[in-house]
Design a protein that fits this description.
337 residues; alpha+beta; Phosphatase 2c, domain 1; 7-stranded antiparallel beta sheet; 6-stranded antiparallel beta sheet; 30% strand; globular; disordered C terminus
């Protein structure tokens, strides 16, 4: 896990596209990811809360495989698809009842998911999407079980978990709870996850189907207690609150600006659209004027801090954690004189 919340990736990711070039008279399809350096930034605060129960993690060396190996590569029809490049892992965890589960997720979730991927469990003939779904499901289950076996926290402590794996061609998200991942494309918001709220039609049916209740107590709550229907931990609310993530896949595009992962301390007061409008404007300004990639000015960090400060100005009453991944960083530029 990267100890520095903001960083610039020193390694190239796969080349932009879709496009093709001619080598030896044959057209070669290239990966969709951009050649250049992926950068990210993070900002977090306890805000108006007495205790900081959020946590976040960045694992820039999550997996070292090709886009084709990860799946969803534009060059997957080739015999050797994709360029080898490290997949990056980003996560935001919003704890409740204490910080123990969120902190454990931040230190362990990316490791557990990586271990499940490398173990190769599952049907070898399953699709790459199903392999990722199974990997995340088993990884989340492993972390959830370790909370008990390692005596990490009492049964009444839990945490959301929204994570993203970024390859050269895909953004793969896994979500459990009401933290959220949003993709910004030319300033427009594309939600990559759907909050697990107890009154969501399918979640309500699942809870009631196993004998639980959703009670409106300052908002819909499972058994009149928890305001989300899925979480890591919270064993006292099983089987109604589960640690099973929903997994989504989104192909990367030249229109992508950035990826925002945040706890509900941001999303309770800032809409997806407002967050993406701000991110788009700031990224454009920093790309025109900033020193990108030399450690003096990282646009993604500026966006993360700006969104956090906006949530504070809007009187967010919760902890706030924001991770921003700049999907368009290409080359270092000199500032305008």
């Amino acid at each position: 896990m990267d100890p520095n919340p903001s960083a610039v990736d020193p390694l190239p990711v796969a080349e932009a596209g879709p496009s093709s070039s001619v080598e030896g008279g044959a057209a070669r399809v290239k990966c969709l990811g951009r050649r250049g350096r992926l950068s990210w930034g993070a900002a977090a605060t306890s805000g108006r809360m007495a205790e900081m129960e959020d946590a976040h993690a960045v694992a820039p060396e999550f997996l070292d495989i090709s886009c084709g190996g990860a799946g969803g590569c534009a060059a997957s029809s080739l015999s050797e698809p994709g360029e080898v490049a490290q997949l990056r892992f980003f996560g935001v965890y919003d704890g409740h009842g204490g910080s123990q589960v969120a902190q454990y997720c931040a230190s362990r979730m990316h490791e557990a998911v990586k271990e499940e991927w490398e173990s190769g469990n599952g049907n070898n003939e399953e699709s790459w999407q199903r392999r990722w779904e199974g990997t995340f499901e088993r990884g989340f289950e492993r972390v959830d079980d370790e909370l008990i076996s390692n005596c990490v926290a009492p049964d009444v402590v839990g945490s959301t978990a929204v994570v993203a794996v970024v390859s050269g061609c895909q953004i793969i998200c896994a979500n459990c709870g009401d933290s959220r991942a949003v993709l910004c494309q030319r300033g427009q918001a594309v939600p990559l996850t759907i909050d697990h709220k107890p009154d969501r039609e399918d979640e309500l049916a699942r809870i009631e189907g196993c004998g639980g209740k959703v009670v409106n107590w300052g908002g819909p709550r499972v058994q009149a207690i928890l305001a989300m229907s899925r979480a890591v931990g919270d064993r006292y609310l099983r089987p109604w609150v589960i640690a099973v993530p929903e997994v989504t896949f989104h192909p990367r595009s030249e229109d992508d600006d950035c990826l925002i992962l945040a706890s509900d301390g941001l999303w309770d007061v800032v809409s997806n659209e407002e967050a993406c409008e701000i991110a788009y404007r700031l990224l454009r300004r920093h790309r025109r004027n900033g020193l990108i990639g030399d450690g003096t000015q990282i646009p993604a960090q500026a966006v993360a801090e700006s969104l956090l400060n906006l949530a504070l100005r809007k009187q967010s009453s919760d902890n706030i954690s924001v991770v921003v991944v700049d999907l368009k960083v290409k080359n270092r530029r000199r500032p305008r004189q």
